[in-house]
Design brief:
The chain has about 1200 residues and is mostly beta strands. The chain has 5 helices and 102 strands. The longest helix has 11 residues. It starts with 16 loop residues before the first strand and ends in a 28-residue tail after the last strand.
């Protein structure tokens, strides 16, 4: 210590203290029998001189002296002896800085033994001295011998700074820096009692201000050193039995001093707290060594704790002093390493906190209304360091601990429970390739909160075996939480897992071994992150209870399993491969959701605020709810409960299974491409709707801006179909039923049923409507479209049913599909395709009604017509309107793929000139003369003058069944004779009645006389206004018909008949040869006056053509024999040279009584003999 100075000179500084080295070793066979060993290499700085008043003038010195610095030495204890009786060993290399001059905490002094005591107090006007700094040295204990005694060890290399001195303003405190403290054990087995290893650096406190407005001194900085426990060797075992095992390398900043108060002026400023930096604390067990920590708890600590700012000085009515700032703090590194060794212990704390110093308060103002308060200081920033637990390559490395706390949180000064500093880093690593190299903990609490730095976060990695945590696993960090595994590396937690970070939660697992997950939780697995949750590579997460993940960013997972429920809430996207839960699964995101396979044993909910939802397969055993304003595209949805899907831009599914389902896309299309199987019905809303099903389905569908296309192999039941466009509703293996709400299509409506089609509540189409059923079409309500097409094996138009409307329908086409015989008219027949007379009355069409019957392959007629009156509507311009089945001037078309048989009265009534009845058959049209009639009548029931009739078939037969049987095998002339007999029928109107008739056949046109009288003029069979008959294919045809044309009877009808094509020359009308109407015979001539016959009559002139015709008709070689009604044997018409330029018959022929073909006795010439204007040929 320097002496004091008089006058105004500065006091002297204290001297520096530097310790030397000390070493104590026990080697070989030596024994140490002392109970204890203390080795010290301490250093202390000298005290600065005080600034005293000058005796003569009373003036104080200008400045007090600074304290001297101190540096610890080296203290080493080596024990490699064979027998020791030690109970304690203390090895220290501490250093303490010297006190500053005028340090009020320094001891009082005397100038001499008899002088008064001089207090270490500064004076006004003086400048305070600064405290000295202390730097710890090296304290080392090396143990290399077995020792069964329980020995306590204290290894210390602390460094402490001194307090600043007093003065007008307080002096600056000295810094404290920890040294190096090490206990190393090699090749020995040792049991320890208490163990403490410390390399702490502590800054001094700021000096006190003595002037009335003096500022408080700043605290000194504290910097931690290195504190280590190191075991190495295959036969090494260290057992520590202390209650607590501290290994410290902390740094503590000194506190700033308070500013001086001033009642008459401003208060002084508070001093700033000193900065702090943690050092390095480490336990390393290497190469087969074994560390047993039998203590209840041990600590690895490298905390940095900043000094507190001093309070500002107070004032009475002026301005108080500002508070000092807290000291900044940075945590160090605390590391627990098993490098081929084993560490076993109970509770463990591995700390690398950064605790910023709290700010000093502003000084008080006595008169608040008069004075001004200063401001509070700023708290020091805190940044966490690094806490590490690590197993490295060795033989093997094993860590087994109890409850484990790892903390590297950064607290800023004045933080309460919520840290705002910079979070540090926590690492747990298993890089050993040995499968036995494991980490096992009773529980883990990893805490590194605060703001995120570049190295902040939690980092776990493993590539060999399981890191096991028996209890809870809690991570709360400022940076990313990162888990990286390879092969069979994984984390298994018996309790809950809770991950909390404002950054990202990342899991990566490469080369994942079969049967291994990445992270397993025995209880709930929760994560709350401000960034993303990313399950990368082949990672797999599993919970024994619930999974609850919440992320402000995206969530992306490869595999996720839960024995209870899964809840994923994302502020971005959710994506994943597989998610499986015993109970419920909830995915909720701000953006989109995409996945591979989701399987929920309870309810499944997928909800987005925007974006799309896409996936391969999703299952919710109890129910599924999916909602998004975007597009839903999922391969398969499977549930036994209800399924609700809302995708505003569209829904695209391959398959759908559930109890009931609701699919809604208000701005897009809805499609189930492969299969929808629902036990309780499906409701669909979309622009266009496309559905396929392999089973029964109940459905309500509304296509608000497009088409509906629904097909199933089971039964289809709809409670409402509506589309602005087309509707296709098909069952390929069952029935179709429209019930409760009518089906309505703005375009075409097509219904297909493999069995039955039931229209219970109606079906209407803006364009065409088509219904096809393998069995029955049953109409119980209005069924309408512009064009209607029906095809089935049977049809039923119920009492409340109606097919078509005059206001819309132009044509109705009804087809029997060939399964059953078709019967039209009558009262209805079961077991066939039956359309009764009443049912025809429930049909309305403006233009045409067409009935088509496919061939059944049976020998009987495929189509039978019983009594059937079909009403045509009257002319709407006539005022009084009669409503019927056909519109005014409409057409009734009846077509058979085989044959038609008419057994009743087919009457198209109230007909107009434009009304038509068209009947066609591939084989025969038969009109049973015993009750069968085909007629077109006007409003009064009159026939023969209204409507047009077309019949076209291979054969047309209008006769009794007896006549049909009788003509089999007869020649055409014999058929003519047989059909001239009416079989007792007296039907003056005949069997065919129309205004105009066209009858076309390929073989036979036969109409039996329907009048009792067989005379030519008395014969009846048809009543028409005009007749065209002919061949539809150009074949020669056989014609034997009877009837009236435009009131004309007998042979005169021949001239009114138009015949198109060729016909057999034996063909007749009303018993007269078409080719020779005169064959019916001329009137009997008036008898001559002379009754006596001339004995020499003149030989009559015989016309050669007439001879030819008669010969051909009478000759048995003419080929006119008819072996059956379908066989056509033609008559050959020969030509002669005389009439070579005048053929017998031209086609078509209107009338056959052409006398140009005949030469009478009165004019023997031919056409060449007749001159124009002559009388020879008249």
């Amino acid at each position: 210590e320097l002496g004091e100075h008089s006058g105004v000179e500065a006091a002297g500084a204290g001297g520096d203290g530097v310790a030397g080295d000390i070493s104590f070793s026990v080697d070989g066979t030596a024994s140490l029998l002392a109970p204890g060993v203390t080795l010290s290499a301490l250093a202390m700085g000298g005290r600065g001189g005080d600034a005293m008043s000058e005796p003569l003038t009373g003036q104080p010195a200008l400045r007090a002296g600074d304290g001297g610095n101190a540096v610890g030495g080296s203290a080493v204890f080596n024990n490699f002896g064979i027998n020791n009786a030690l109970s304690f060993v203390e090895v220290t290399a501490e250093a303490t800085g010297g006190d500053a001059g005028n340090d009020p905490e320094a001891p009082d002094r005397q100038a001499g033994p008899f002088d008064p005591i001089i207090p270490a107090v500064g004076y006004v006007g003086q400048t305070a001295g600064n405290g000295g700094s202390g730097t710890g040295g090296i304290a080392t204990v090396n143990l290399g011998q077995d020792d069964s005694n329980i020995v306590s060890y204290r290894v210390n290399a602390d460094g402490s700074g001194a307090m600043g001195g007093g003065g007008t303003s307080g002096g600056i405190a000295g810094n404290g820096t920890g040294g190096s403290a090490l206990l190393a054990l090699t090749n020995a087995s040792v049991a320890l009692g208490d163990l403490s290893i410390s390399a702490v650096g502590t800054g001094g406190s700021g000096g006190i201000a003595n002037a009335i407005n003096g500022d408080g001194g700043n605290g000194g900085d504290g910097i931690g050193g290195n504190a280590r426990l190191d075991l190495s060797g295959p036969n090494v075992e260290l057992t520590v039995n202390s209650d607590i095992l501290p290994i410290f390398s902390d740094g503590y900043g000194g506190a700033g001093a308070d500013g001086a108060s001033n009642s008459g002026g401003d208060g002084g400023q508070g001093g700033n707290g000193g900065q702090a930096t943690g050092g390095t604390s480490q336990i390393a067990v290497r190469t087969g060594a074994n560390l047993i920590l039998a203590s209840e708890a041990f600590q690895l600590s490298s905390v940095g704790s900043g000094g507190q700012g001093g309070q500002g000085g107070g004032t009475f009515s002026n301005t108080s002093g500002n508070g000092g700032n807290g000291g900044q703090a940075t945590g160090g590194t605390s590391r627990l390493l098993a490098q081929g060794g084993t560490i076993t212990g109970n509770s463990v704390t591995i700390a690398a906190l950064g605790l910023g110093g709290s700010a000093g308060d502003a000084g008080a103002v006595e008169l608040v209304n008069e004075g001004t308060s200063g401001v509070r200081g700023v708290g020091g920033s805190g940044a966490g360091g690094t806490a590490i637990m690590e197993v490295q390559e060795g033989s093997p490395g094993i860590i087994t601990l109890g409850d484990t706390d790892m903390t590297a949180t950064g607290f800023n000064g004045n933080d309460d429970d919520i840290p705002t500093g910079l979070g540090g880093r926590i690492e747990i690593t298993d890089t050993s390739s040995d499968p036995a190299g494991l980490i096992s903990l009773a529980s883990l609490n990893a805490d590194a909160q605060g703001g995120a730095g570049s190295a902040s976060g939690f980092f776990m990695s493993g590539n060999s075996g399981t890191t096991d945590v028996a209890g809870d696993f809690i991570v709360n960090v400022a940076g990313d939480a990162v888990f990286t595994f390879d092969a069979d590396g994984q984390l298994s937690v018996g309790g809950l897992i809770d991950i909390d970070t404002p950054q990202n939660f990342i899991i990566t697992h490469t080369n994942r071994a079969p049967g291994y997950d990445s992270i397993i939780s025995g209880d709930d697995f929760t994560a709350s992150v401000g960034g993303n949750i990313d399950g990368l590579a082949d990672s797999s997460l599993r919970s024994g209870a619930n999974v609850d993940f919440r992320a402000d960013g995206n969530i992306g997972l490869t595999e996720l399993y839960a024995d209870d429920s899964i809840s994923l809430l994302s502020g971005g996207d959710i994506s994943g491969g597989l998610a499986n839960a015993t109970n419920d699964i909830l995915f909720s995101s701000v953006n989109g959701i995409s996945f591979g396979n989701i399987d929920a044993g309870g309810n499944l909910d997928l909800v987005t605020e925007s974006g799309d939802i896409t996936g391969d397969m999703a299952s919710g055993a109890l129910g599924i709810n999916i909602e998004t304003p975007g597009l839903v595209t999922i391969g398969s949805l499977d549930s036994t409960g209800n399924v609700n899907v809302t995708g505003e831009q569209g829904i695209e599914l391959l398959s759908l299974t559930g109890g009931s389902a609701f699919l809604a896309a208000i701005n897009g299309d809805v499609a189930v491409r492969d299969n929808a199987e629902l036990t309780n019905g499906l409701t669909v809303l979309g622009n266009n709707i496309f559905l396929r099903s392999s089973g029964d389905m109940e459905i309500v569908a509304d296509a608000v801006a497009g088409n509906i296309d629904i097909a199933s192999s089971g039964n289809l039941l709809t409670y409402g179909l509506s589309a602005t466009g087309d509707i296709l509703f098909s069952s390929t293996g069952g029935s179709v039923t429209i019930q409760e709400v009518p089906a309505q299509a703005g375009g075409d409506l097509t219904i297909n049923a493999a069995t039955d089609a039931f229209i219970v509540t109606g079906a209407t189409a803006g364009n065409s409507l088509s219904i096809t059923a393998g069995n029955l079409i049953a109409l119980q309500a209005l069924t309408s479209g512009t064009t209607i097409n029906l095809s089935s094996a049977d049809i039923d138009i119920g009492a409340s049913g109606q097919l078509g409307t005059f206001s819309q329908t132009n044509s109705v086409n009804i087809e029997s599909n060939g399964t059953n015989q078709a019967i039209l008219g009558g009262t209805g027949t079961s077991g066939v395709f039956s359309l009764s007379e009443e049912e025809f009355g429930r049909i309305q069409t403006n233009e045409s009604l067409s009935i088509y019957v496919q061939g059944t392959g049976a020998d009987t007629a495929d189509l039978v017509i019983q009594d059937l009156t079909i009403q045509s509507a009257s002319d709407p311009s006539a005022g009084q309107i009669t409503v019927g089945t056909l519109g005014f001037g409409g057409a009734l078309n009846i077509d058979s793929g085989q044959s038609i048989r008419v057994d009743g009265d087919l009457n198209l009534t109230n007909a107009a000139d434009g009304t038509s009845l068209n009947m066609t058959a591939v084989n025969d049209i038969r009109i049973n003369a015993n009750g069968g009639v085909v007629q077109i009548t006007n409003a009064n029931g009159d026939f023969g003058s209204v409507g047009s009739l077309l019949m076209s078939a291979q054969n047309i037969y209008a006769m009794t069944d007896q006549a049909f049987d009788d003509i089999n095998g007869l020649s055409l002339s014999e058929i003519d004779e047989r059909l001239g007999d009416s079989d007792g029928i007296d039907n003056d109107g005949g069997l065919i009645r129309a205004g105009s008739a066209q009858l076309f056949v390929n073989e036979n046109l036969f109409i039996q006389n329907s009048a009792p009288d067989g005379d030519f003029d008395s014969r009846r069979g048809f009543t028409v206004g005009s007749l065209v008959a002919g061949s539809s294919t150009g074949n020669n045809i056989n014609i034997v018909i009877n009837g009236i044309i435009d009131g004309v009877t007998g042979a005169d009808t021949i001239e009114l008949t138009t015949i198109e094509g060729q016909f057999d020359e034996a063909s007749t009308i009303n018993g007269c040869l078409i080719a020779d109407p005169a064959s019916c015979g001329a009137p009997t001539p008036t008898p001559t006056p002379t009754p006596t016959p001339n004995p020499n009559p003149e030989t009559p002139v015989i016309d050669p053509v007439q001879d030819i015709i008669e010969e051909q008709v009478d000759s048995g070689e003419s080929g006119s024999s008819i072996n059956g009604p379908l066989q056509n044997n033609l008559i050959e018409i020969k030509e002669t040279d005389e009439f070579i330029n005048d053929p017998l018959i031209n086609a078509p022929v209107t009338g056959a009584g052409n006398d140009d073909l005949w030469s009478g006795a009165g004019n023997g010439g031919n056409d060449d003999d007749c001159e124009e204007g002559g009388t020879e040929c008249e």
